[in-house]
User: Which sequence fits this backbone?
């Protein structure tokens, strides 16, 4: 059941440049999307979210863009820092459901080189 | 800053044994979740819990699994008879009632031998 997909398993960028992580989904009922960052042997750490009524949300160096017609979202990190190196997961939920369970993508490993 | 905590950080058990994984969600949160991540795979939803009952469970969450909120702070996941394939990281998460943002604990690594 691949409702949320992150097609790039890894991404490598130079410090100071932009990192763009992509995520696609298939279920049009999803109306809330989140990005989490995860280090090995730790739990996912919430980064940023976006509701389907918006197409952009910004928080410091992190911006999430949502294209509902393409069922696509992306996370931009500008400027990228070595400490951003981690696995990034996108997740989706149906806010109006009575559970709000998250469906995760497979993750993208970001490496930021000094 | 409030956070979700989980104990133990690592649990090793023999196949067929019972294990209980413990979580303390963020104090004013009302929705509680368990997820797991098998090594190299994606994070998978197991169960959600609200108002002292299960609100949804996945196909993975069979009769061997149960959840409980025994008091006002703890949230537990019990596996009655562990199998080798239960070896995974288990994450607890919680959220408040006005947002879909879930906050995760650090996880418990379960190793079944």
Assistant:
């Amino acid at each position: 059941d691949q409702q949320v997909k992150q097609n790039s398993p890894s991404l490598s960028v130079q410090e100071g440049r932009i990192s763009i992580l992509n995520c696609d989904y298939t279920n049009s009922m999803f109306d809330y999307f989140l990005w989490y960052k995860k280090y090995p042997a730790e739990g996912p750490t919430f980064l940023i979210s976006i509701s389907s009524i918006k197409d952009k949300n910004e928080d410091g160096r992190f911006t999430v863009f949502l294209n509902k017609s393409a069922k696509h979202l992306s996370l931009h990190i500008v400027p990228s820092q070595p400490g951003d190196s981690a696995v990034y997961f996108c997740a989706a939920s149906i806010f109006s459901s009575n559970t709000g369970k998250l469906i995760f993508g497979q993750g993208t490993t970001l490496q930021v080189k000094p | 800053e409030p956070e979700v905590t989980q104990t133990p950080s690592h649990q090793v058990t023999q196949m067929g044994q019972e294990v209980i994984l413990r979580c303390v969600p963020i104090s004013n949160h009302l929705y509680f979740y368990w997820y797991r991540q098998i090594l190299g795979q994606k994070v998978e939803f197991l169960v959600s819990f609200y108002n002292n009952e299960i609100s949804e469970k996945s196909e993975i969450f069979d009769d061997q699994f149960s959840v409980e909120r025994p008091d006002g702070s703890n949230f537990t996941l019990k596996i009655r008879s562990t199998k080798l394939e239960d070896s995974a990281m288990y994450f607890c998460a919680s959220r408040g009632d006005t947002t879909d943002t879930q906050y995760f604990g650090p996880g418990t690594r379960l190793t079944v031998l």
Observations:
- The CA atoms of residues 25 and 40 of chain A lie 25 Å apart.
- The first strand of chain A starts at residue 4 and ends at 5.
